Amino acid sequence: MKTITFDIISVLKFKLDIIKYEKISSKVGWVQRGIDVTSKHFPGIINYLSKQSILGNIYNYKIVIESDKKRSKEFIDKLFSIWIRKERVKRRALVVIEAILIPFTAILALLPGPNMFFYVPALLLYYHWKSLNGLKKLDLDNLELEIHYVGKDQIGDGK
Predict the structure, then answer these.
(1) What are phi and psi of 58, to 5 degrees?
(2) In whole angstroms, what separates CA 45 from the centre of its chain?
(3) Cα separation, 71 vs 35, whole angstroms
């Protein structure tokens, strides 16, 4: 089973970050070339879309949480479930906003050249929809989290 690793950013804000994960890829040659070019020039976009893709299939991954402080398993379980609920709400809002924007950006298709004003929101809508569905499928009651206690300087090493 593949593993994704989270780091606890802020306990008070229930904020976690995915620090170890697989980058998106494609078996289709021209799509993979597009991913490679985008990764070279805009690595942040590929990282963001990779994380959205991971959230879309999170129920298929073994989840590891790295913590720099000794915290109880119950506390980390609760923290992760609250974070998942927050992410669901964020994804719902993003999907609604993007679904409202897309018809207006389709009007810009009349402009010559590639219609980036339509493609980008459509791509984001797809990935946010996919991550929302993955987060909804995640069974929080039967979730098995693995907790690794590490020093603050070790968190995220070995990406």
Answers:
(1) -60, -30
(2) 11
(3) 39
Nearest to 4 by CA among 74, 67, 54: 54
Are the CB atoms for 105 and 117 separated by under 8 Å?
yes
Which ranges constitute the DSSP H helices of 10-141? 29-41, 43-56, 73-106, 116-137
Any idea where the domains of the chain sit in the sequence?
3-154
CB atoms within 10 A of CB 138: 19
- pLDDT tens digits, 1-21: 789 999 999 888 889 999 999
pLDDT, one tens digit per residue, over 87-134 is 999 999 999 999 999 888 878 877 787 777 888 888 899 999 999 999
Q: What angle do CA 64, 1, 7 make, to 5 degrees?
A: 15
Six token digits for residue 45:
């976009």
* Per-residue DSSP letter, 58: G
> Coil, strand, or helix at residue 108?
helix
Q: Is the dihedral of CA 57, 155, 94, 116 positive or negative?
A: negative
